[in-house]
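Quick check before the chapter quiz. The format below is the same one you will see on the exam, so make sure you can read both the input and the output lines.
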Amino acid sequence: MTADEQALVDAEAAFNRAMISNDPAKIRECISADWVLVTPERGPIPGAAVLDAIAGGTLVHDTMTKQSRVVRVFGTTGFVTGRGQNTGWFRGQPIGADEWITDIYRRADGRWLCELTHLTPAVTPDDKA
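Here is the expected output.
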């Protein structure tokens, strides 16, 4: 793994820690002002809407783990794809997910900032029955 790729893996770990902190300020340190979350349920969601949901307690993350599988850097752009699981609460109801996650980053001022997160449910062949 190159130094740039390791820095990207470290940025991804910091992003995960920020998300389970449920602190919008910490999350903002890891994302760009234009960050977008793409979900299978709602499609693209502006980052501001996600942060507002977290700030208001509508969305809470208790756990978030990710196994990075593919890490690539192309100049000032990089991406991390891996399998992630998380638990928490949405509108007072417990939630949990097992997903394939791709985070696309841009290097700015020597730091990696996430520009886009794309989520896809992790479905095994047995789940398709």
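If your answer matched, good. The chain has a mean pLDDT of 93.
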